[in-house]
Amino acid sequence: MMSESLVMDAPLTAADGVPLAVKLKRQARLKQLKALGLIAPLALFLLLTFLLPIGLLLKRSVDNPEVVSVLPQTSRLLADWDQRGLPSEAVFNALAADLTRAREEKTVPELAKRLNMEISGFRSLIQRTARKMPLELAPGASVRDRFIEIDERWGDPDHWHAIARNAKSWTPYYVYSALDLRETKSGTPELAPEEERAFLKIFGRTLWMSLWVTIWCIALGYPIAYWLATLPKRQSNLLMILVLLPFWTSVLVRVAAWIVLLQSEGLINRALMGLGVIDSPLPLAFNRMGVYIAMVHILLPFIILPTYSVMKSIPATYMRAAISLGDHPFAAFWKIYFPQTVAGVAAGALLVFIMCIGYYITPALLGGPEEQMVSYFVAFYTNVTINWGMAAALGSLLLVATMTLYAVYSKLVGANRLSLG
Amino acid sequence: MLPNYASPIEHIWYWTFRLLCVLILIFLVSPLLVIAPLSFSADSFLLYPIHHFSLRWYETFFGNGEWLNALKNSFIVAPAATVLATALGTLAAVGLTSAHFPGKGVLMSILISPMVVPVVIVGVGAYLFMAPMGLTGNYLGLIMVHAALGVPFVVITVSATLRGFNVNLMKASASLGAPPLMTFRRVVLPLIAPGVISGALFAFATSFDEVVVTLFLAGPEQVTLPRQMFAGIKENISPAIAAAATVLILFSIVLLLTLEWLRGRSERIRTAKV
Amino acid sequence: MNRLKLTAALTLATLAVPAFAAKDLTVVAFGGANKEAQVAAYYQPFEKATGTKITAADYNGEMAKIKAMVEAGRPTWDVVEVESPELLRGCEEGLFEKINWAKVGNKSDFVKPAVSECGVGIFVWSTALAYNADKLKAAPASWKDFWDLKKFPGKRGLRKGAKYTLEFALLADGVPPDQVYKTLATKAGVDRAFKKLDQIKSSIQWWEAGAQPPQFLASGDVVMSSAYNGRIDAAQKEGKNLKVVWNGSVYDVDSWAVPKGSPKLKEAMDFINFASKPENQKVYSSRIAYGPTNVKAVKMIDPKVAANLPTAPANLKGALALDVGFWVEHGEELEERFNAWASR
Fold first, then answer.
1. Which residues span the membrane (chain C) (predicted)?
2. Closest residue of A to B14, CA-based?
3. The complex's ipTM?
C-alpha cells in the first residue's frame, strides 16, 4: 500500500498553500532586492563622486562648444557654405553681429583661444577684430571689404575653413592631437609632421617604462616570495614586516628618501666615491634610473604579497617527491614548483603594470622631462595651459588602456580576488 | 637548512640565493632607515654626514603653522573619508555576498575600479566636475573623492571576511528569534569586524597618503601632509621633510602593527574550535 | 551601523560649513624666498595694522585654479601674485576684478608697467644667468658662453618652460636683444630657438621652482643656470659664492590681482594699498633683491642694496624687458610645443 503523501504528482506546497517553487523564487527575489538595496548607497555615491566626473571628462575630449556658442549666427550660415572661395557677405555680417555680442558678454577670449589651436595667430586676429566692433560702416559699403581692411587674413579661406570646421558642437581635434594625428581638409586623419609629433612616443614610453618596472618587480619579488614561503613561520613573519613596512609608508616619504640616497651628493654616490669606485658622482636621480628604482620600490610588495600567498598554498611534498624520484632540485623546481606559481605571479604583474601606466608623482619628482608619462601631460594641460579638451583626450586614451587591461584582469583573476596582503 | 648530502654547487646556490634575498630586503627598508636620522640633523640641507644633532626640524614641524595645519587637515580629511568609505563599503560588501544576481561580477569590477583608474584622471575629472558646484577648495569635495578611492579596499576586505563566514550562524540567530538588525549587530558585525577594521585602515592609509587628487581639489586651507611634502620636495628639500617623514613612518608602524594584530585575531576566531 | 551613518552625516555637515562662513584674507604668492620676504614686509605688518588675519598660500603660477573658482563664482583666493602675461590674459578673460586705483594709490607713483586695469605691480624681477664662482674658473659673460659646452663642460639649469628659455636661445644664437621678439613671432624664429636648444638639450637639468637653481648651483649639480635674481641674492646672503650675469637678463613685473567675485574685495584693495606703500616695499626689497614698483620706494633704498636690484641702471644695460603682448598672444601654443619638445 502506498501512502498518499508519497504520491509525487501534486506540487509541494508551503504551509499557506502557495507552491514551494513559487515561494522559493519569491524568497530569492526578495533576497536579491535586499542585496541591491545594500549596494545602492555605495553605487550612488560612486556614481556621483567617481563615475559621473569621469564620464564628463570623456565627453569633454570631444566637446567643442566655443565656436557654436560664441558665433551662433555665423555657425548656422557656415553649415551651408560650399567651402569654396570666401563666404558670402551674409556670413561676414553674421560674424560682425556675433563678435559684437561676444564683446559685450566677454566671451571673445575663449573663442580666440580655441581658434588659435587651429591656426597660430588666430587669437590676435579675433581679439583685434572684436575690438573694432560694432562696425561703423558707410552706407552701402561691403562688410567683407571692411573685415579685410581690418586684417587681410579675413580674406584667406583657410581661416574660414577653420571656423567652419568647428561650427559643430563636437570635434575629433583633441583625440586626433592626442594620437599625433590631424584632420586634413577632406576630414580624414593623417599623421602630423615629424617635429610636431609627441604623444605616440609618450604613450609608447609609458608602456615601455611600465613594462620594465613590472619585469624588475617580478625579478626581485619572486625570490623574496619564495624565500618567505619556504622559511619557518616565525622567521618569515618577522621578515614579512620588512616587506610590509615600506608598503604602508607614504609614497612621498619614500620618494624623499630616494632623493637622499640617489642625488649627486647623496649617500650612494658619497659611499662609492669614498671607496674609490668612481671619481665623479653617478647620475642616479632626476633621470630614468631614479624613476625605475623608486617605482620598483613602491610596487614590489604588490608582486611579493600575491606570489607569497600562492606559494604558501603549494605543499612542500611535491618538490620532495620529485627530488626523491631522481630529479635534480633545479629541474624539480622548474618543472614542478614554478608552473604552479605562474598564475599568481601573472596576476600580480598585471596589477603592477596597470598601476604603473597611471603613475604621476614618482616621475614628476624623481624624473626629468624625458621620464614623464601620460598622467603628467594630463596634469600639464589641465593646470598650465588650461587646455581641458586636450587633458580630457589624453586622459580618455589612458583610461581606455587601463580599463582594457583591468577587464582582462577581472576576467582572468576576478576583481574580487585582488590581494591586499 | 640544506641536508648534509647536498652538493657543493647546491651549497653555493643556497647561500647566493640567501644573499640575494637579503639584498632585496635591504633595498626595501633602506630608504626608511636613511631618512629618519636626517631629521635630527642640525644642518639645513638634506645631506649626510650629520655633523651636529638637533631637534630644530621637529621644532619647525610642530612650531610652523604650515606643517601643523597640514597635519591637522590630514587628520580631518582621512578619518572623515574613512568613516564614509567604511560605512558604504561594508553595506555593499554584505549585499554583494548575500545574494546572487545577474551582472554581479561586472558590478563588483565597477565598485573596485577606483583602485585601478589612474589617480590623475580621478583628480582632473573630479576637479572639472566639482569646480562649477563650488566643491573645490573645501573639505567636503576632498573627503568625498578620498572616500571613493578608499571604498574598494573596504569592499575587498569585508567580502573576503564574509566569504569565510558561516551563514548558519545567521540562521541560528534568526531561528532563535532575533530580528535581522539585531542579528547583524550581535552576530555578523563582531565576526566581520576584523575585515571591516582592516578595510578601514586601508581606506585611511589611502586618504592619508593621497596627493594627486588633493593637488587638484584642495585650496590653501585644505593642504594635507602629503601635499605639503610634495611642495617641499619640489621646491626646497629641507630636513623638515625628513621630520615629517619620520612622523609618518612611525605612524605607518602603528597602522601595520594594528593590522597584524587584527589578522592574528581573525585567524584565531576563524580557526577556533566550537 | 545607524550610529556610524549619523556620525558620518554630522561630520560632513560640520565640515561643509566653514567653506561658506566668513574667513581671513587669503593671499597667494609664489613660494620660497619671495613669500618669506612678503610675509615680513607685507602680511605681518598688515595683520598688525588692521587686525585682518591673512592666510598665506603659495602656487606656481597656474591659472587653472583661478579660472575654475571664478567660473564657479566662489573664489577662495582674495589676492594673488601673477606674472604679467597671465595678468593681461586673465584680465581679458574677466578672471580678475578691476583695480580701484582711487583706493590703491596714485598711478603716477608707480613705474609704468606696474599700472594696469586689473593689476598693481609688486616688484620688478629678473631672470638671469647665474653661476657658482667657487666652481667655475672663468666667469661666463653671456648666453653664448652658456651654450659653450667645450669651454664650460657640465650640466646647465634652465626653467622648464618656453618663456625666457626661447629668448635666451635666440640671444645665444646672436640675435640682438631688440630683435628677439620680432624673430620669435615668426615660425622660422621659433624653429631657430628650438634648434639652438637642441644643441645643449642633453646637458640641461630643468628646474621648475625658483628655489631649485641656487640648490643646483650650490651642490655642483649644474655649472650655471638661469635663475631668478632674488633667489641668487638670497643664497649669497647665506654665504654661497653665486654670481649673476645681468647681460641678457629678462625682466618683468609681478602684480597683485584680485580674482573676480572675491567676497573680500574691500579688504583686498586695502591690502594692495598697504603693500604698495613705499616704506613697506622698501622692507621687501631689502629682504630679497627685487626692485620696488613705487618710485618713492626707490629713493628710500640703501644704495648698496639698490646696486643688486634688476632696476639698477648698470644692470639694465643689455637686459631685455619681457614682451607681455607677445606671451599673451603665443604663450599657450609655445608652452605646449616646448613641453612636447622637452619630453621627446
1. none
2. A227
3. 0.89
| Domains contained in chain C, number | 2
CB C196 within 8 A of CB C169: yes
Q: Is C178 on the interface with A (CB under 8 A)?
A: no
- Residue A227 is predicted with a pLDDT of 94
C5 domain-assigned:
no
pLDDT digits (tens, 9 = 90+) for C90-145: 998 889 999 999 988 889 999 988 999 999 999 999 999 999 998 888 899 999 99
Q: Nearest to residue A387, comparing CAs of A372, A377, A397?
A: A377
- State mean pLDDT over C323-328: 91
**Interaxial angle between packed helices A89-105 and A143-150, expressed in degrees from 0 to 180 and rounded to the nearest 10:** 60
**Residues C194 and C283 occupy one common structural domain:** no
Domain, as residue range, for A384: 199-417
To the nearest whole Å, the CA of B65 is away from the closest chain A CA by: 20
Q: Residues of chain A with pLDDT > 90: what percent?
A: 57
Q: Pick A358's closest partner by Cβ from B92, B119, B249.
A: B119
Q: Give the start-to-end residue ranges of the domains of chain B.
A: 58-271
Q: Is a pLDDT exceeding 90 seen at residue C195? A: yes
Flag whether A5 is in a domain.
Answer: no
pLDDT single digits (tens) A383-398: 888 899 999 999 999 9
CB-nearest to B32 from A38, A257, A267 is A257
Give pLDDT, residue C277. Answer: 94
In angstroms, rounded to a whole number, what is the distance separating the alpha carbons of residues C294 and C277?
7
Residue range B58-271, CATH number: 1.10.3720.10
Same domain, C152 and C217: yes
Which portions of chain B are predicted below pLDDT 50? 273-274
Q: Do B121 and A243 touch (CB under 8 A)?
A: no
Residue C211's SS3 state is coil
What is the domain extent for residue C274? 16-124+253-309
B236 inside 8 A of chain C by CB: yes
Chains that touch C (3 or more CB pairs under 8 A): A, B
| pLDDT: which is higher, B242 or C5 | B242
Asked whether residue C293 is domain-assigned, the answer is: yes
In degrees and rounded to multiples of 5, residue C78 shows phi and psi of -105, -40
- Looking at the domain assignment, is residue A175 inside a domain? no
Query: What is the length of chain C?
Result: 344
Q: Which of residues 131-170 of B touch A (CB under 8 A)?
A: 144-145, 147-148, 151-153, 155-157, 159-160
Is A59's Cβ below 8 Å from some Cβ in B?
Answer: no
- Which parts of A264-366 fold into alpha helices (H)? 267-274, 288-312, 316-324, 329-332, 338-357, 361-366
> How many domains, chain A?
3
Q: Which three cell numbers stand for residue C45?
A: 605688518
A266 touching chain C per CB within 8 A = no
Q: Which of B86, B181, B188, B236 to mutate to test the interface with C (most CBs of C within 10 A)?
A: B236
Q: Are A46 and A146 found together in one domain?
A: no
Q: Which of A44, A206, A210, A416 to mutate to test the interface with B (most CBs of B within 10 A)?
A: A416
Say yes or no for a CB contact (<8 Å) between C76 and B220.
yes
Residue A106, chain C, CB below 8 Å: the answer is yes
Q: Which residues of chain A have pLDDT under 70?
A: 1-10, 414-421
> Considering only CA atoms, which of A220, A121, C215, C89 is closest in space to residue B237?
C215
